[in-house]
Backbone:
C-alpha cells in the first residue's frame, strides 16, 4: 500500500509539471479528425521547414462540440476534418473565421473553398467502384446503375450512415430529387450481399473472398492497399480487385474533400494561416498525393501513379455546399429505406 | 452539527452536483431541440433499433450469466488439476477492449482468414464460395463476441461470493442429502443472486454502450442510432433526447432489479463463513472440468490475443516498434492511476454515505454515482463539455478578479480527463466498496459505537480497514477499465497526448489496426497486472482455505 501511495505522490508531482510546463516559441494548435498517422508526415515536414511546433489532438466524434465548448478561451488554431458536411458544419456553427490569403486563393480552385475564406479543401478523394477482376464492361459504370436488378446480392458497401456514403446520397439527391433517390437507394439496398457495415477496405476484402462482386469505396484506399502499406494481406485485397471511376449519368465522378478552417478564436491566427498556406504548397500537396494517395487540390501537382492508372478523373460538378446542405436529408433517407438493417 | 459533519455534507452535496452535471447539461442540450425527430425515429428507426438492442442485451445477458456463474461455480465447488491456473485465466478477457476483439475476430473468421482458409484446405475446397459459413457481421455474431468478452464481470463477484460466503450453507445442503445439481440450483444460485445481478448489470451496460464493436459488426443498436443522429445530421439536441430516454430506461431497469431483489444483499451475518470445501474430481471428470472452464478463456482471450501477438510480430518484422509507444503507455498508466486514486476516494465517500448521511440521502448518492456508467462514453464526454467550460470560465473570472492565476483544470487539460474517468467508473469502486462494507458483521461497528467512537470514527477505524480488500479490488477493476477506455479519452484529452487506446483507434480508423497491435498488446498487459493483483487479493482474503486442494 505504501508503494501505491508513493506512486500516487510521484504522479501528482508530474501532473503539476505537465500543467505548468508550457512556454514555447512559435507554435500552432491543430485539432483534427484526420488520423495522426495520415497527417504526421506533413506536419513533421512543416516543422522541419518552419521551426514552428505543431501541437495536435486527434478527436473523432464531437470535435465541433469540443471547440464550441472551449469557446473564446479555446486553444484551437486550425481545425482539420474530412467530408464537406463536417467542414461546413464548422462554419454553420460559427466556429470558423474568414481568412483572406492570396496564396490560398491562388492554389485552391474556387469550387473547393468558401468565397469568404471560412473553409478550404486541401485534398480530394473520389468514390470509386471496386469490382471483381473477372467482370468486364464496367468502364461506363454509373452510380445509378448500382440499383439495377442484375446486381442482386452482389454489392458490398459500408454503412449508409457513414459520411462518405451520406455525401454520395446527398449528391444523388441534389441531382435527381427525393423520389428518384429513394427508389435508387431501395434498389441498392436490395442488391447488397451482406450488411452495410465495416470499412471501405472490407469491400475489397469481401470481393477477394467472393462474397460480392462490386462495391463503392474511396479512391485512396486503392493506393494504401496496393502499396503494401497496410501489410501483405491488404496488398492481396488491393490486387484482387479492379477499380473503375463511375460517374453520374451524364455527369462526373462523386468527389469529397478533406479540408480545414481557421478557428474563430484562434490564439495563433497568423501561424494558422501560414500552416494552411503550407498545406497547399507544391511540396505539401505532393506529400498528400504520395503518402495519402489523395488527389491534390492544386492544379499542376502530380497525382500518384497508382491513382493515375485509374484513368482521368472527371468531377461531378454538383457544388460541395449543396451536397453538405443535403446530408441530413440523405441520412434520414438511409434510415427510411432501412439501408443498414 | 460538528464541523467534520458539516464538511462531510458539503463534500457530498458538491459531489452530487458534479455527478449530475453531465445529465443536466444533456438535458439543456435536449431542450434545444423541437422533438421533430421523433416521428421519423418512431417510423423508421426505433422498431428495428429497439428489437436489436433487446436481442443483443438478452443474448449477452444469458451468455454472461451462464458463463460467469458456471465458471465461478466450477472453480469454487470443485478441485481438479489446473484449477488454480483456470481461476486466474478466467479473468483474462477483462483486459481486452471489445472493439479490438471485434477486429481480431473478423480477421480470423473472414473467408480469407486463417480459420476458413484452413477449413477449405482440409475439405479440399478451392473457392470461399463453396463453403458458406454464417457471417460474424450480424447480431448473433455480436452477441457471441460480447458475451465471451464480458462474462468476467459476472465471474468476478460471483466467485468471490461463493468463496467467501457459501461454505456453511452449501455444506448444510449437502448434509441434508442434496446432490451437486440441486445444491447449485436451490442454494448456491439464489445465494449468489446479488452478485450475479451486480455483474450482469455492469456487463449489460458495457454491451449497451458499446459503439465500436456494434458499429463494426453492423448491429444497429439504440446507441449506434444516437451517433447517427448526432454525427451525421449535426443534431445534438436530437441525440441528447434519445440518450436521455435511454438513460431513463437503464436507471428504471436498475431500480426495478433492486426492487425485485427486495433490498436483499450481502447481509452481514454474525460470524465469518467458511469457504466451500471443494469436491475432488479426477480422471475424465477433471479433464472435462478443465476443458469446460478453459473454453470461455480461449474464445474471449486466447484466440483474439493470440492473433494480436501474431499480427504485432509480423509488423515488428516489417516496421519496428513505433517510437511513441513508450510515451503512450506512460500516458495511459499516468491518467488511469491518478483517476483510480480519485475514484477510490470518491467511492469510499459515496459507499459510506448511507452510514454517514443516513440511508435515504446515501442511497440517492449511490444511484447518482451510477449515472456516468449508464450512458455511452462519448455521451458522457459531450455532457461534460459544457460543465467543464463553465468551470474554466468561473476560474478565469476568479483569476481576473485579482487572484492573478487560476489552476488549469477545465477543458483540454489532464484534469478534465481525470474528472471524466472518475465519473464514468465511479460506480465500479462504489459497488465493490459497498459490498465490502456490507460483508462486515454489524456487531463490529456497533461495538465501536458503544465504545464511544462517532460514526465517522467508526468508519475510518473499523469499517474501511475491514473492507479494504474489496475497496482495492474495485480500484483494480476501475483501473483496467480506465486503461482501455476510448471514447472519453478521445474527446477530452489535452493537445499532444496519445494514450495506447487513442493510438490504436487512430490506426484502426485508417484501416491499419495491425500497426496498432503493439499498443493493443500493451493495453492487454496493462490490464493483466491489476488482474493478477486482483487474484492475489482474493486469495489473501480467503486465507483459511486449504492451499493443497489443487
Residues:
Amino acid at each position: 500500500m505504501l508503494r501505491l501511495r508513493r506512486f500516487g505522490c510521484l504522479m501528482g508531482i508530474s501532473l503539476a509539471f505537465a500543467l505548468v510546463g508550457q512556454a514555447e516559441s512559435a507554435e500552432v494548435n491543430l485539432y483534427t479528425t484526420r488520423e495522426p498517422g495520415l497527417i504526421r508526415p506533413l506536419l513533421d515536414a512543416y516543422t522541419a521547414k518552419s521551426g514552428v511546433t505543431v501541437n495536435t489532438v486527434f478527436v473523432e466524434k464531437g470535435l465541433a462540440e469540443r471547440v464550441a465548448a472551449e469557446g473564446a478561451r479555446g486553444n484551437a488554431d486550425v481545425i482539420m476534418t474530412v467530408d464537406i458536411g463536417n467542414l461546413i458544419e464548422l462554419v454553420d456553427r460559427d466556429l470558423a473565421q474568414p481568412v483572406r490569403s492570396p496564396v490560398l486563393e491562388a492554389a485552391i480552385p474556387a469550387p473547393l473553398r468558401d468565397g469568404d475564406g471560412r473553409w478550404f479543401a486541401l485534398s480530394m478523394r473520389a468514390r470509386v467502384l471496386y469490382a471483381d477482376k473477372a467482370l468486364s464492361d464496367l468502364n461506363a459504370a454509373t452510380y445509378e446503375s448500382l440499383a439495377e436488378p442484375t446486381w442482386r446480392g452482389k454489392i458490398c458497401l459500408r454503412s449508409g450512415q457513414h459520411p462518405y456514403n451520406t455525401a454520395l446520397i446527398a449528391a444523388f439527391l441534389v441531382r435527381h430529387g427525393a423520389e428518384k433517390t429513394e427508389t435508387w437507394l431501395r434498389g441498392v439496398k436490395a442488391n447488397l450481399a451482406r450488411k452495410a457495415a465495416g470499412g471501405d477496405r472490407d469491400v475489397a476484402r469481401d470481393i477477394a473472398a467472393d462474397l460480392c462482386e462490386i462495391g463503392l469505396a474511396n479512391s485512396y484506399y486503392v493506393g494504401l492497399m496496393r502499396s503494401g502499406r497496410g501489410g501483405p494481406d491488404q496488398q492481396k485485397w488491393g490486387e484482387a480487385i479492379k477499380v473503375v471511376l463511375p460517374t453520374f449519368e451524364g455527369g462526373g465522378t462523386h468527389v469529397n474533400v478533406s479540408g480545414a478552417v481557421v478557428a474563430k478564436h484562434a490564439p495563433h491566427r497568423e501561424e494558422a494561416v501560414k500552416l494552411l498556406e503550407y498545406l497547399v504548397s507544391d511540396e505539401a500537396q505532393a506529400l498528400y498525393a504520395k503518402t495519402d494517395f489523395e488527389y491534390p487540390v492544386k492544379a499542376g501537382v502530380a497525382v500518384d501513379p497508382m491513382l493515375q492508372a485509374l484513368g482521368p478523373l472527371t468531377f461531378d460538378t454538383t457544388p460541395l455546399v449543396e451536397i453538405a446542405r443535403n446530408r441530413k436529408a440523405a441520412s434520414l433517407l438511409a434510415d427510411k429505406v432501412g439501408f443498414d438493417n | 452539527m460538528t464541523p467534520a459533519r458539516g464538511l462531510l455534507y458539503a463534500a457530498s452535496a458538491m459531489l452530487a452536483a458534479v455527478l449530475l452535471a453531465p445529465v443536466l447539461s444533456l438535458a439543456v442540450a435536449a431542450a434545444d431541440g423541437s422533438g421533430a425527430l421523433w416521428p421519423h425515429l418512431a417510423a423508421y428507426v426505433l422498431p428495428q433499433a429497439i428489437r436489436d438492442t433487446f436481442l443483443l442485451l438478452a443474448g449477452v445477458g444469458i451468455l454472461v450469466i451462464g458463463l460467469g456463474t458456471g465458471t465461478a461455480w466450477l472453480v469454487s465447488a470443485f478441485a481438479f488439476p489446473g484449477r488454480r491456473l483456470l481461476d486466474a485465466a478466467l479473468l483474462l478477457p477483462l483486459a481486452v477492449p471489445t472493439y479490438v476483439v471485434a477486429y481480431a475476430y473478423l480477421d480470423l473468421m473472414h473467408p480469407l482468414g486463417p480459420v476458413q482458409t484452413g477449413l477449405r484446405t482440409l475439405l479440399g475446397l478451392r473457392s470461399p464460395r463453396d463453403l458458406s459459413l454464417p457471417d460474424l457481421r450480424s447480431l448473433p455474431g455480436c452477441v457471441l463476441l460480447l458475451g465471451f468478452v464480458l462474462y468476467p464481470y459476472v465471474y468476478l463477484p460471483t466467485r468471490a461470493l461463493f468463496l467467501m460466503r457459501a461454505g456453511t450453507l452449501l455444506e448444510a445442503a449437502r448434509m441434508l442429502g442434496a446432490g451437486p445439481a440441486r445444491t447449485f440450483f436451490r442454494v448456491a444460485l439464489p445465494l449468489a443472486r446479488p452478485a450475479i445481478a451486480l455483474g450482469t448489470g455492469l456487463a449489460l451496460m458495457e454491451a449497451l454502450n458499446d459503439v465500436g464493436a456494434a458499429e463494426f459488426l453492423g448491429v444497429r443498436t439504440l446507441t449506434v442510432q444516437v451517433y447517427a443522429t448526432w454525427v451525421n445530421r449535426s443534431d445534438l439536441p436530437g441525440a441528447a433526447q434519445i440518450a436521455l430516454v435511454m438513460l431513463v430506461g437503464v436507471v428504471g431497469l436498475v431500480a426495478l432489479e433492486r426492487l425485485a431483489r427486495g433490498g436483499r444483499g450481502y447481509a452481514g451475518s454474525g460470524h465469518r463463513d467458511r469457504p466451500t470445501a471443494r469436491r475432488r474430481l479426477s480422471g475424465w471428470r477433471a479433464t472435462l472440468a478443465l476443458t469446460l472452464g478453459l473454453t470461455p478463456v480461449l474464445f474471449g482471450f486466447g484466440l483474439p490475443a493470440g492473433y494480436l501477438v501474431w499480427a504485432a510480430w509480423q509488423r515488428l518484422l516489417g516496421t519496428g516498434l513505433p517510437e511513441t509507444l513508450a510515451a503512450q503507455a506512460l500516458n495511459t498508466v499516468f491518467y488511469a492511476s491518478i483517476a483510480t486514486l480519485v475514484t477510490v476516494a470518491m467511492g469510499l465517500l459515496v459507499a459510506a454515505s448511507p452510514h454517514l448521511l443516513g440511508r435515504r440521502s446515501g442511497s440517492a448518492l449511490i444511484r447518482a454515482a451510477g449515472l456516468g456508467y449508464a450512458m455511452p462514453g462519448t455521451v458522457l464526454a459531450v455532457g461534460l463539455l459544457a460543465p467543464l467550460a463553465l468551470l474554466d470560465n468561473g476560474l478565469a473570472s476568479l483569476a481576473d478578479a485579482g487572484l492573478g492565476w487560476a489552476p488549469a483544470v477545465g477543458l483540454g487539460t489532464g484534469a478534465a480527463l481525470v474528472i471524466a474517468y472518475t465519473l464514468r467508473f465511479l460506480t465500479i469502486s462504489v459497488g465493490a466498496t459497498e459490498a465490502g462494507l456490507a460483508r462486515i458483521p454489524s456487531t463490529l461497528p456497533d461495538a465501536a459505537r458503544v465504545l464511544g467512537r462517532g460514526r465517522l470514527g467508526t468508519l475510518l477505524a473499523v469499517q474501511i480497514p475491514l473492507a479494504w480488500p474489496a475497496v482495492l479490488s474495485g480500484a483494480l477493476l476501475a483501473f483496467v477499465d480506465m486503461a482501455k477506455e476510448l471514447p472519453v479519452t478521445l474527446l477530452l484529452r489535452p493537445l499532444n497526448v496519445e494514450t495506447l487506446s487513442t493510438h490504436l483507434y487512430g490506426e484502426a480508423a485508417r484501416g491499419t489496426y495491425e500497426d496498432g497491435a503493439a499498443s493493443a498488446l500493451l493495453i492487454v498487459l496493462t490490464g493483466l497486472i491489476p488482474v493478477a493483483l486482483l487474484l492475489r487479493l482474493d486469495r489473501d482474503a480467503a486465507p483459511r482455505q486449504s492451499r493443497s486442494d489443487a
Q: What stands out?
A: Residues 267-271, 543-550 of chain B have pLDDT under 50 and may be disordered.
